Amino acid sequence: MLYSAKVRTTLLLATLLLAGCAQEAPPAPPPPEVTVVTIAPRPITNIVELPGRIQAVRTSEVRARVDGIVQRRLYEEGSDVRAGQPLFAIDPRPLRASLNAVQASLARARATAANAAQDVARYQGLVAQQAISKQEYDSAVARLRTAEADVAQAGAQVEAARLNLGYTTVTAPISGRAGRAQVTEGALVSAAGGTLLTTIEQLNPIYVNFSQSSSDLLKIRQDINAGRLNLPTLGRVEVQLVLEDGSLYGPTGHIDFLDLSIDEATGTAALRAEFPNPGRTLLPGQFVRARISAGIRPDGLTVPQRAVKLAAQGASVMVVDAKNVVAPRQIKVGDLQGSEWVVLDGLKAGDRVIVDGLQKVQPGQPVTIAKPAGRPASAQPKAAQPNAAR
């Protein structure tokens, strides 16, 4: 009996100890607090970003138009020249001698024509008196016409020789920046070979050439037809440039050319934009990225940049469902407008996306929605009024 009493006492003490331990266990931590934004549609600009290359608005290759020896270079390489400014001097002496020769031929032809005209004038009276035959008169008229043709031919030769002599002074066909000289003094240039002397490029304004795939163009047309994209019927499509260092080029350009056919080799359509370039910041051949304002999406969706996680698999966000439980969501983003990503797919209006407190949550974990400033807190998701995504 005494042994049984001791056993019961021991069991009672163990039970009391276990009960005490259970009462001293710490309570479960509360759900972490996060800040969310509710996705709401709003009009956003549809930005299309494409790579492009700078091209001079006008390029002129200055070539030799006569044969000869270059005597002097008359401009400074890399300087601005005006249209008509002399650039090179070619030895004019052979062409001046040719001009003198054809001028002498012209004088001889004129003298012959004057003598033939006098013969015709004398023969007119004689043929009327039948002092000479009609055949002799006709021969005199034929000689006059031949002499007049010789005068015209010699005159054309003089004009050609005078033009060639003028071409010995090579002038700029357009105003712009003249490049490096391709010939030096003493070089033999050829008109038949079209010897390149230098190149002039007009840099203000300037062109940007880029292209867009046929699939993207098809998607834009489908969005327009479905009402998801509004394009202005009037006005010019604006374009901004992103330079190689990531900075934005100041002046805004506009599309001035759109090819209406698709290149079979590349599957793209060619586009061109024109930009003012007063400071010569943009140079031909330079690589840039063009941001085209291709209309307005009336029901566009955006999400704050800090809410998006970018990885090799794509972009993702953390959303909170109706029960305040966290779930990951893969999304497709477009361009970055300010501090917000444009959402192309993966989210819909009314979705709640976590923007603050991401480091404290895990998928499947319940959370508490932080109260917006100036509004009472509530644990019910329907009462929470998070800030709408801008």
Structure notes:
By secondary structure, this protein is an alpha+beta fold. 27% of the residues lie in helices and 36% in strands. It is built from four helices and 20 strands. A hairpin with a 2-residue loop joins strand 16 (326-337) and strand 17 (340-345). The two termini are 81 Å apart. The model is unreliable at 374-390 (pLDDT under 50).
How far is it from the N-terminal to the C-terminal residue, by CA?
81 Å
> Roughly what is the average pLDDT, rounded to an integer?
82
- Give the strand tally: 20
Number of helices: 4
Which segments are poorly predicted (pLDDT under 50) over 5 or more consecutive residues? Answer: 374-390
Task: Break the fold down into its secondary structure elements and pairings.
Layout: H1 2-24, E1 33-38, E2 42-63, E3 68-73, E4 80-81, E5 86-90, H2 93-128, H3 134-166, E6 169-171, E7 176-178, E8 188-189, E9 196-213, H4 214-226, E10 238-242, E11 253-258, E12 268-275, E13 287-304, E14 309-311, E15 314-320, E16 326-337, E17 340-345, E18 352-356, E19 368-369, E20 387-388
Parallel strand pairs: 1-19, 1-20
Antiparallel strand pairs: 1-18, 2-9, 2-13, 3-5, 3-8, 4-7, 5-6, 7-9, 9-12, 10-11, 10-13, 11-12, 13-17, 14-15, 15-16, 15-18, 16-17
